[in-house]
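HOLO CASE FILE
Compound: iron/sulfur cluster
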Amino acid sequence: MAAINLLEQLHLHLEALRAAGVLFVPRSQIAPVRFAPQPVVAPVEVLAQAHPVEVRRRELDVLAQEVAACGTCDELFSTRLTTVFGAGPLNAEVMFVGDAPGSDEDAQGQPFVGPGGLLLGRIVAACGFTRDRVYLMNVIKCRPPRNRAPSTAECVNCRDFFQRQFELVKPKHVVALGHFVSKLLAQQNAPLSQLRGTVHQYRGAPLICTHHPDDIDDDKTGRLKRETWDDMKLLLTTMGREVPKPS
Ligand code: SF4
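Model generated. Tokens follow.
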């Protein structure tokens, strides 16, 4: 819309010049045009007519731009390559939540694209979901240096983004990946072994706590993998879905 207006204005300007007897404009006198960033806000009357899902999608886009411009956490802002917002459909059947982006995610700007993400993709597939039917995101949007755990202050700084994103996506079920996120979303200061095996609630959605795929990858005993599958069976049962037979 902005580009059309600009072309119309340019056309009118050239018409006015021609009417005044100016037949050409020397190239050297044409200053480079710099476009100021346009706010991605639809006119009120357009938004009012839009489907509620479409309105939420647009609000999510605006939120992603706010995140991309955020520099609240000094250290993360100065060391990150990019922000990692999240990916997946609105009204996702399941939202998987990790703690923070790692190096692969930081480089690509996408959640769960490193080795742990590939394992998560296999877990999702084993449950009978495709990856594009689930929503993937982290509690904080910038990679902590050396993959350290996010600090309390960083979680507080990013909490509003996380909660607004959650409300806009409106997932039907939530899976917390790892002890850090499980404690945060279940709002209980307990070991993961105690948080697993119970259906908690997060903002009205059933919440299952399980291991983080990076931890499963590091565990050579296979115990975390078996426990994660138990947690996924609890998720599927909670969703009223059949548990697939192991292949
Ligand atoms: S972690 Fe969140 S609050 Fe901190 S700089 Fe990144 S986007 Fe902003």
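CASE NOTES: Confidence is low (pLDDT under 50) at residues 1-7, 23-40. The chain has one domain: 42-239.
CLOSED: yes
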